[in-house]
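Quarterly update from the structural biology core.
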Amino acid sequence: MNEADAYELFVLIAEMQNQLLFGYFGVVTAFLVMSYLVAEKLDTFLAWIAVILYSICCAWFFFGLWGWTTDLTNLYADLIKNKNEGVYQLNWFGANPKWLAAFVNFLELIVTFGGWMVSLVYFFYRRGGIGKHDGKNA
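Predicted structure, tokenized:
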């Protein structure tokens, strides 16, 4: 793979990662809206069906993002290695340290897992299962 192909692959993976992340944000937003509007009206069976389907969807996003960001981190390290060895002439590329890509990977996983957990807490709060609430506020 030459440097143009490697850089194009890097950009394509980053674009796919962003699309997946914003798709995840859309699913979380839809679940939060559903929680606000109908969580307290669902019977127990339907509530658990919604939570299970939502959790499966979030797991798909979580592991998809993990895979894409791991690939992106490894590709970034390879691009930097080839640049430093003189194989690639990407003089302008690689100003960020290699650890930054791994840190961004970690942050994305925290955001996706945290978003899932907090949205479930809100769902059960709206159902009246967490704390005292009258169903009119939140």
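The radius of gyration is 20 Å.
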